[in-house]
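yo, D-2-hydroxyacid dehydrogenase is done. seq:
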Amino acid sequence: MRRPSVVVLHGEDRPPDTASIERLADVRYVREPDLARALPGADVVFVWDFLSDALAGAWPDTGGPRWVHTASAGVDRLLFPGIVDGDTVVTNSRGVFEEPIAEYVLGLVLCFAKDLHTTLRLQGERRWRHRETERVGGKRALVVGTGPIGRAIARRLTAVGVRVEGVGRTGRPADPDLGRVHPAERLHDVLGEADYVILAAPLTPATRGMIDAAALARMRPTARLVNVGRGPLVVEDDLVAALRAGRPAGAALDVFESEPLPGTSPLWELPQVIVSPHMSGDAVGWRGELVRLFADNLARHREGRPLRNVVDKRLGYVPSALVSARPDPRG
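structure:
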């Protein structure tokens, strides 16, 4: 059995515990400047630096490797014409991030309801100021994005008494995790019903900028916006203006239009905003889980078995946990 050639695109840090990969393939570790030279002749690309946009610029005009795997749930940086229009198989890291992100969102909802961010700020100022807090049970959440992450979020919130509905590509009256799912074109109609609007949608042409001034104006003045999807789902200038005007009441943002968030951004200074550095899914041990997932897929690739987490390149989502899609049988 021929050993496949794997290119690992990494940033400052290389993936850990790569012996399991190196036993199965000839591996070349590269950073962005060397990526274009490494791709010709490679069978597989493992995009460890999942925040990099370099693959699109480095992709060979004659077609690149037959399989690309990313160490992330989102695949928007991989869905450029060279891959989408070709026969390259794309897989993602579904199964690693869902539950940690759901727990993170639950923590943010509790933080807003119990005003914990204000408590910590006042503690730092040595100020004693009594306040009343809110109940979580009975509140309404609208989860935008009905994929695995959105579903995990819905289950966590439902468990503490939050009434959850969803927004997805197609509507349906009864969903086991999300209750009622509204079609995407009705987003503006249902925003005003939610106490928490939670963004867990992939970034596509249809979702880019979906939370703009018009959408924010539809939200309740007391509502909070939580974004754990992709930064460009939100028009940040519109959000800053809306927050300064008092609608919505707050926002928790783990992703941004530009990352790291520039120090000049007013989001840092708004007291009703919680900023975190794209970490909602990064629980202890997550890097090792990502490598183990890729190593399992690499073994499947070598043996000609179906890969896990194959992405529908035209839609930008994973239709099932295991899809019968076979890369080049030479692998």
